[in-house]
């Protein structure tokens, strides 16, 4: 029996269609009392109860269970195996940043990896993006500058359009494209070509736009926002939640205090120091809650992870692609024979869990084959132990 914690955020209560309170999202998201039931601990308990009940109802009490997950789902998969070893015999935790918490990683590491992704494709591409923030601000402050920005980036008419909203829109494009820099076309967040970071840099380096850096930035952002060519303009005020991230904002204000967003002098993003105080202030304003910055590492661990897991855990595969900015908080070294780290230099966010394709590169096929073989060995050992104890 295999249980899948779906990749990214759609993996537990309050996400997708898994809405409590009778499936009424308005009620479930109404206040801190109802949202208080949204936590990783509660989600894991849900799955433990579900698996035990399923096995009983299916007359499969002796069937081994392996859990799979990517991103937050990958974190849940790893933590599930640690917390419920009597329920699941193993876990594949893909792109699971279980170490991306305060006191464990630098707040700069996420943006450092994004910077390296673009810089590895083209030094000019890196420099154009790095200089874009000052360019946008300078343009906005000139007479007619805002209209020039609106026209160049094909922004839909909006009363709230400003340099800040444009910069946030661009920042999202660079971040999500780095995360989903897959070797084959995808439609995970937006429709994208294979190796979209490379395509973005090709757009910036193209001679078609001459020396017009704003036009180059628009061409690159269009790889993420308009690869299909169907968009006539871009709505920066779109407050819809197509990827169901609303619940994640709550978790990021309560338990998932992950220091992401710091930028140093080399970053393609403006230099910035991540601040827990700023996060706590925003959470207090938006949700009227105070974060628990050390709860995750108290509940699941994280400090001295190699030493701790070596003596307390087994049967977990940690996959990370080094082009994924979340890999900075992942387990990148094999800890024991049964706690295996698989690291793909060209891999992106949980690429191993994506649908297979004829265009998949050999390294990705090899990763999946290795994962299958490891999981098969767990199942084989489980049945051997079952027979010897019967």
Automatic annotation (TrEMBL):
Signal peptide boundaries: none
Keyword Signal: yes
InterPro entries assigned: AB_hydrolase_fold (IPR029058), Peptidase_S28 (IPR008758), Ser_carbopepase_S28_SKS (IPR042269)
Keyword field contains Nucleotide-binding: no
Domain of life, source organism: Eukaryota
One MF term in the entry's GO annotations: serine-type exopeptidase activity
Pfam family name, one: Peptidase_S28
GO BP annotation list: proteolysis
Keywords: Glycoprotein, Hydrolase, Protease, Signal
SUPFAM superfamilies, sorted: alpha/beta-Hydrolases (SSF53474)
Matching Gene3D superfamilies: alpha/beta hydrolase (3.40.50.1820), Serine carboxypeptidase S28, SKS domain (1.20.120.980)
UniProt family annotation: Belongs to the peptidase S28 family.
Protein name, entry field: Lysosomal Pro-X carboxypeptidase
Source organism of this protein record: Glycine max
Highest classification ranks of the organism: Eukaryota, Viridiplantae, Streptophyta, Embryophyta, Tracheophyta
